C-alpha cells in the first residue's frame, strides 16, 4: 500500500526530517518540477530533486556544498574542495552524505553534470555503502574519459573491474546508477550497464555524492531498494506534451498526448501519466488527455509522470457565429446533359443574391452524388465513369443546386488515321488520330479488336494532347536507351480513369504492358516484350500524329507504321 515516507533519515553524524506533504504543496507552485517527495512505491527509499531550494538531511563532509539553480532548476553542487587534508579527506576531495547505515541492497541513481576539472586529472562519483571517509564503494566518470567501479578501503583504491572507456564532456548531464545487492555490484551510465563485479567487504551503509579535483552538479537523486531481481525500469527524465499550444472555441474538444523520455532521449512507454488543468473553468482535461473547452481564457494543462512535468497552453476563444450567407440561390448550366462513359462535359455555376440579378463572387463547391457514375472537379468538369444517372451538385454554405447528368455506355472509338500498329500475340497497340479530333489516341486492344476493311479500330484509348506528345516521345526514347544500355527502367503507370497501363521493362530485352480498363474482363498483358526499336518507332509516330502529318519522312517509315487511306 502506498504511503508517505518521512524522508531525511539519519545521515552520518546528522539527522533530519522532511515534512513531505507540505513540501509537495510548495513544490507544486514551481514552474518546472515537483519535488520528488511523494513516495507511493515501497521499493523507493529516497528521492530528491532539490526543488524546494534545500538539501535537508545531507551532510557535506568534504568541501563546501549548496543548492543552486541551473536553467531554472535546482541542483546540489560543490562550490569548494578540500584545501587541507584531514578527517580522512585528501586535498581536492569533496563529498556529501545522506541516508541510513542500515541500507543494504539498493541502487543509487543520480543525474550528474561535470562543470570543470581544474587539474590534469579529476573525477565525479557516486558512493554506496558508505562506512566512513576512508571506506566505501564508488562509481566514477573521469576527466580522461573512463567509467570506473572501485572500492576504497582505509585509503587504498581497488579497481573491482577493469575501467572502461566512456567519453566525458564537461557541461553534459549523465545519469549514473550504482547497484549493490549482496556481493554483487553494477555500474550504469545513461541506463546502460558498463561494469560489474563482486565484493563482500561492505554490507550496508548510506549514500554519498561527490568527486575529486572537480566541480559538478547533482540532481534527481533516487535510492531504490533491491532484492536481487532485475533492476527497475529506466527513470523518466523528461515529459513532452503535444501539441504545446492548442486553440479551441467554447464547446470544442481535442486531445493532448504526453510522451516520456529517458535521459538520453529514448521514448519510454507504459508509464503512468496524470493530467491536471490550471483553470478547469476554462478547459478541463480527462484521464487520457481529452481537452474540453468550457469558457474563454487560458489554461495550462500539465501531464505528470514519475515527478516530471510537461505542459500545453490551451487558449479558449469565444465562438464567432457564422455570417449569414449573401447567396440566395445558384444557377447551373446546362440544366441537363448526356455523355458516354469516358467523355467529359463542362458545367458552369453562378451564385446570386437577392434581389436578382446581383452576382456574388464567392467560391462554389462541386460534388457528384455518385462518383461511380461520374466525377466532377473543382471547376465543374464532369467525367463519365459508368452508365447511369447522377446529380452534379454545387453549394455555397447551406445553399444547394443540382443538375442531372446521364451517362450512357461507352461507344467504341472509331479511328480512320493510323500512325502506328504493333501486333503482338495477344493484342495490338495503335497510335491514331482522326481529322476531326484534337487529341492523339494511344489505343491498346485485345485480339478481337481487328481493323475492318476501312482500317477502323475499336478499343479503349488514352488521349495525348499534341502539345505534350513530344514529352511522351522523349520518354519512350529514354526508356529505349536504358533498355539498350542493359538497364531495367520502370515500372511506369499511365491512365485516365477508365484505362490503366502498368509498363515494366527488362534489361536488353524490351518492355511489356499490363492493361486494365472498363469493359474488359481481367487484365491484358502484352507479349512478347516490345524491343527498343519498336519503342523508338512509337516515339516518331506520336510526333507525326501530333503534327498531323500526311506523308511520312524516310525515318518514320517502318514496317509496322502505315497511313490509312
Please give a quick description of this structure:
The protein has 565 residues and is mostly beta strands. The protein is built from three helices and 44 strands.
Q: Key features?
A:
mainly beta, 565 residues, single chain, elongated, 3 helices, eight-stranded antiparallel sheet
Question: How would you describe this structure to a colleague?
Answer:
8% of the residues lie in helices and 45% in strands. With 565 residues, the protein is mainly beta. Strands 1, 3, 4, 6, 12, 13, 14 and 16 form an eight-stranded antiparallel sheet that branches. Strands 2, 5, 7, 8, 9, 10, 11 and 15 form an eight-stranded antiparallel sheet that branches. Strand 38 and strand 39 (440-446) form a beta hairpin. Helix 2 packs antiparallel against helix 3. The chain is elongated.
